[in-house]
Amino acid sequence: MSETRERLLALLTRYDGDPHRLHDEVVALDLDLRDIETTVLGGRFEPMTPLLGAARWLISHGADDRLRLLGLKLLDGAAEPADVQEITSLARVPALRRFAVQVLVRVPGAERTAVRLAEDAGERYLVIRRLITHTDPWIADWVRAHCGDGSVARRVAEAHDLLGLLDQFDVPDRLWDQAGRLLHGMSRAHGYSVLHEYADAVAACRRWVELAHLRPATPERLVALIAFADEIATGYAALVLGDQRVDLVAALREIASAWIEELGSVTPWATLRVAALDVPPSGFAVRVVTSPPDPVSAAEARVVIDGVPIAARVFGCWRADSPEQVIPRLTATTEPREIVLDENDGAELRVTIVREGDEVVWRDWKCVIGARLPGEHRFDAAAYDREVARVAQDHSWEWPARTVARLVTERLQADPSILGRRGFGRGSCWSSWDGPDLAELDFAYAEMFTEPHFRFRMRLDVAGRDPGEVADETIAGLEIAVQVLALRLCLQFRSRDYQAFPK
Question: Using one digit for the tens of pLDDT, what is the confidence trace for 350-403?
């Protein structure tokens, strides 16, 4: 802790009951807001009563946000209903909003106020963690609806007896929706999936599926059902449900198909995902799965061996690598090749692939996470080749800009001279999650590869257009653009479609 903050703690420790003096002494320290934020006050002062009076005075009369924040921190955990109005007024100040919500949520009777302020401030999780076990039905409903994923979702499911709620005679649609989000959130967490830690996971999943056909179809409900069905089929939930998932996925696919027919008009993503939904048979399989459009999905290639999704098993988390990364590596030859099958946060999962007669062998798995590595697997070579060829040729999962990115990348790889004849290189095209109709092409001037700032980017608008035509126009336009860039040798080139960017 800095010397300045230590001096603040010393002032508080010897507080003599005069809030005016304390105010002026804190001002004299010339602290910034960050100093106040990071100063740990809890458990440092006994007795607290005199400082609670000072805290209330600082909240009401502090000269600036630093003094009012100090008052909030001193009052945290000791505020009373009479303090709610004053604290609520501070929540309108952006710099103090988070701390005001933090204090309010611990005041008996002020929880609903804290919830509303947390919604406005984007601080839901700060409040949810405090209210998981709250008995107010309105608050319990709000917590279930907004708790997110991972361990928080598991704690909510346990505290609210999710299985008991689903076992009611008449389960409301809103509760069924919330249960689905909780189960999906435990399975598809951004870090370590926790569905296996929820003791009632299997029973709750089965009950949720059993109740699905009773729900009226809505586009949002259809998306949620498909997303969780994918996790049951080939995601982390498959590890928890085992063979039971075969019947569950079949039931969900039937329900989703009926909903699509009932709704009439749904997103292309929903139609494609329902058509592709299945549980892979034993042996070697690859499933390309796209997450729900929001506004556009990310894609992952899930390698499944004997029903086990390998990335989910090894890493215990939710996203496998992209099809463009994984699928080209899967070709088996008589020469053993060690490939990177998946990567998570810098940890590479490696396996050696070799063709031995009429079998393809996967062996010698390597990863820093060694406890969950598979053993050696042998696959029928003909069936293996058919599966690799199938998934390599199947582009039905792509959104328009993703198709353009693939076609442009393939052209650049097939003919390096498109960029290379003018001294350019390192071209790559991609479509990110935040725009279904936008692809971006990035390339550099080869003679200045050592200059990290000398790169160019083309933004490709695909909206309402044929992806093949866009790809052709992009390659033709790129050939002209690199001629101009090479002739001018400029560090920055601007027009409607081109812009020089820092790397």
Answer: 999 999 999 999 999 999 887 789 999 999 999 999 999 999 999 999 888 999
**pTM (2 d.p.):** 0.84
CB 144 within 8 A of CB 178: yes
Structure tokens belonging to residue 67:
């003094």
Spans of all domains in the chain? 134-279, 290-393, 400-501
Indicate the Cα dihedral angle 251, 257, 259, 260, nearest 10°.
Answer: 160
Q: What angle do CA 272, 171, 195 make, to 5 degrees?
A: 60
Q: What angle do CA 4, 9, 15 make, to 5 degrees?
A: 125
Say which residue the tokens 């601007």 belong to.
494
Number of helices followed by number of strands (H, E) in the chain: 24, 11
Residue 160 near residue 144, CB atoms below 8 Å:
yes
CA nearest to 31, candidates 75, 64, 80: 64
Q: In angstroms, rounded to a whole number, what is the distance separating the alpha carbons of residues 443 and 97?
A: 44
What's the pLDDT tens digit per position in 210-223?
999 999 999 999 99
Give the torsion sign (CA, 476, 479, 483, 488).
positive
